[in-house]
Amino acid sequence: MEPGFNSITFDQLKLCRLNIAAFIARRIAFNQQKSFSRFVIRLSIGATVISVTVMILTLTFASGFQKTISEKVFSFWGHIRIQSYYSARVAIAEETPIHRSDSVTGLKKSFPAIKTVQAFATKNAILKTAETIEGVLFKGVERDYDFTNLEKFRVKGRWLKYTDSGYSNEIMLSAYTANLLKLDVNDQVLIYFIQPGAPPRTRKLTVAGIFKTGIEEYDKLIAIGDLKLIQRLNDWSPDLIGGYEIFLHDYNKMDQVSEDIVPDIPLGLQSNTIKYIYPSIFDWLNLQNKTILIVLAIMTGIAILNLITCLLILVLERTRMIGLLKALGARNYTIRGIFLYHGAIITFFGLLLGNICGLFIAWLQNQTGFIKLPEDAYYISQAAVDIVWWQIAAVNIATFVICFLVLLIPTIIIRRVQPIKAIQFR
Fold first, then answer.
1. What is the pLDDT of residues 237-289, one digit of tens each?
2. Which residues neighbour 426 within 8 Å (Cβ) at sequence distance 6 or greater?
3. Pairing status of strand 98-99 against strand 170-174
4. Which helix (H) or strand (E) holds 260?
5. In angstroms, what is the C-alpha Rg of the chain?
6. What's the confidence (pLDDT) of residue 283?
7. Cα distance between residue 67 and residue 385, in whole Å
8. Are residues 205 and 168 in contact, defined by beta-carbon separation less than 8 angstroms?
9. How many other C-beta atoms are found inside a 10 Å radius of the C-beta of residue 357?
10. The whole model's pTM is what?
11. Cα–Cα distance, 82 to 234 (Å, whole number)
12. I need a labelling partner for 349 at 20 to 30 A (CA). Which of 18, 111, 116, 123 fits?
């Protein structure tokens, strides 16, 4: 009789007769005697722990990466942009001016999903110092612009100060542009605004602050200033602007909100999500979902193969026990239940320890940021973490169910075991 099984008394069997398979499975699984099966069980649990840990980290890091990059993109341009139908789709193009509209600014009252509606305009310009020049897209914003969305990107100085009359003579530069032009906070810079069919117009502006997003398309392109300056340079009246940026409370709703507000905006204006304006970035982010599925499939496959191998070894090692149980009158489904319970125990502890390890590493990364990334390639300097609990639950449930169903495969061997030959098995 096998170690761990010969100590089962008749009273114990009587007490557990309604669930004898689970009882025997627990005795085998938690047997403290040194044996090869004990080593295999621990190895199987360890492999399951690694698979589950990798799956959890893949989900949390991928979700954090997508969320962080998306928020960076949204912070500068909002979630939805309202412009003239004649405005170009490309981000560096200047907008066709539109008139201010109370119906657009009033969208916040009609749609609770909308957080803010803010006017803006852009204009191509060239920054010049004594040593070098650099082209930028000058983005003009108004006094009531909500800079809290950009606060996490400010590395030096402060945001713009507005005057009661005229325009602000300050500018916000990216760290890339400031380093290229060798400028710092409170330094002055000449800015040349390109005028179609006319000489450039020059202004001297003071650097109020410096920001850094980590997104190359932003840091190499954008400078922030006063919308009134663009209105004056373009000979616009105060009623003309380049468009509106709309920020939402939940960016996942931007496609739906963009469609819903179309009947409420004036004729001649269009509503586009920022994904439509910057398709390359979001197409790149969507590719991450395919990577996630590949990693999850590989890790699930490893966990399944590991459990099948483990159970096959256990079934072969416990052949004498199977023969003895059959000789005592146990049915195939009862014996099969022993190994199914055994596999479930291995899967459960693998999932439990895997969740603990995965969530701990994710928490440690969130607190310390010990996993670094090249910012020029990934737009972030360290791996971002976002724990989506329903994804974690889905991984656990799916892994357990799939593994449990696949565990039926090794137990087919049990049907072919003959008691007489099994008892003689060495």
1. 999 999 999 999 988 899 999 999 999 999 889 999 988 877 777 777 777 77
2. none
3. unpaired
4. helix 254-260
5. 33
6. 78
7. 9
8. no
9. 17
10. 0.75
11. 20
12. 18
Q: Whole-angstrom Cα distance, residue 46 to residue 94?
A: 58
Written as one string, the DSSP assignment of 30-91 is T--S--HHHHHHHHHHHHHHHHHHHHHHHHHHHHHHHHHHHHHHHHHH-SEEEEETTS-SST
Q: Nearest to residue 37, comparing CAs of 247, 414, 313, 272?
A: 313
Smallest CA-to-CA distance from 318 within 96, 82, 5, 53 is with: 5
Distance separating alpha carbons of residues 92 and 74, to the nearest angstrom:
16
Spans of the chain below 50 pLDDT? 1-7, 10, 13-18
Q: How far apart are CA 110 and CA 97, in angstroms?
A: 25
CA distance 82 to 117: 10
DSSP calls for 211-228: E--S-HHHHTTEEEEEHH
CA 229 to mean position of chain CA atoms: 38
Identity at 401, one-letter amino acid code: V
Question: CA separation (Å) from 61 to 21, 238, 384?
Answer: 40, 46, 6
**Contact indicator for 222, 173 with CB cutoff of 8 Å:** no
Pair 314, 29: CB distance under 8 Å: no
Structure tokens at 247: 């920020």
Query: Structure tokens of 41?
Result: 């069980």
Q: CB of 148 within 8 A of CB of 129?
A: no
Q: How is residue 11 written in tokens?
A: 């009273």
Cα–Cα distances (Å) from 405 to 340, 401, 402, in that order, read 9, 6, 5
- Which tokens sit at 77? 């341009």
Which amino acid belongs to residue 318? R
Residue linked to tokens 């008691």: 419
Q: How far apart are the first and last CA of the chain?
A: 12
Tokens of residue 417, six digits:
């075991």
* Residue 246 near residue 82, CB atoms below 8 Å: yes
Tokens 């392109």, located at residue = 221
CB 223 within 8 A of CB 177: yes
